[in-house]
């Protein structure tokens, strides 16, 4: 029985390590949010953009990410105050919406994260991988 209990203990230890290495770190994401913002390009009528906007709001609430929203068709997507400057959109060479860019708050540094809808955990992982 002792051997079995050791096995179970080691199994759960390894499982915990594996899960923690796959799941995004809250501390890392909060740290990233201090120096980077998320720039969101959308079309107001796009269902994928509407779904993506909810995930971005969750990142804002959980980690403090600042969200800059840019309308590609000149119409708002609640709850965002939108902008219509498309210069960054053109630089990214994105072909569809939604598109998300990780952009330095105090620099001109930017990294394309996604073109098309990403689930919340996929988006968290993309943010972490972009800076590793």
What does this protein structure show overall?
The longest helix has 21 residues, at 2-22. The chain has a five-stranded mixed sheet with strand order 3-2-1-4-5. Strand 1 (36-42), helix 3 and strand 2 form a beta-alpha-beta unit. It has helices spanning 2-22, 26-35, 47-63, 87-92, 120-130, and strands at residues 36-42, 67-71, 82-83, 99-104, 110-115. The chain has 132 residues and is α/β, with parallel strands linked by helices. The radius of gyration is 18 Å and the shape is globular. The N and C termini lie far apart (44 Å). The chain has one domain: Glutaredoxin, CATH 3.40.30.10. It contains five helices and five strands.
Q: Which properties best describe this structure?
A:
single chain; 132 residues; alpha/beta; Glutaredoxin; 5-stranded mixed sheet; 5 helices; 5 strands; 20% strand; globular
């Amino acid at each position: 029985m002792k051997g079995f209990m050791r096995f179970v203990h080691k199994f759960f230890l390894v499982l915990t390590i594996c899960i923690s290495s796959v799941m995004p770190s809250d501390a890392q994401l909060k740290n990233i949010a201090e120096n980077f913002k998320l720039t969101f390009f959308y079309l107001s009528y796009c269902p994928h953009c509407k779904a993506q906007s909810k995930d971005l709001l969750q990142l804002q609430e959980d980690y403090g990410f600042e969200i800059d929203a840019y309308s590609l068709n000149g119409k708002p997507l609640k709850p965002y105050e939108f902008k219509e400057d498309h210069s960054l959109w053109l630089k990214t060479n994105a072909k569809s919406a939604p598109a998300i860019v990780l952009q330095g708050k105090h620099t001109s540094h930017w990294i394309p994260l996604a073109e098309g809808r990403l689930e919340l955990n996929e988006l968290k992982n993309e943010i972490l991988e972009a800076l590793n």
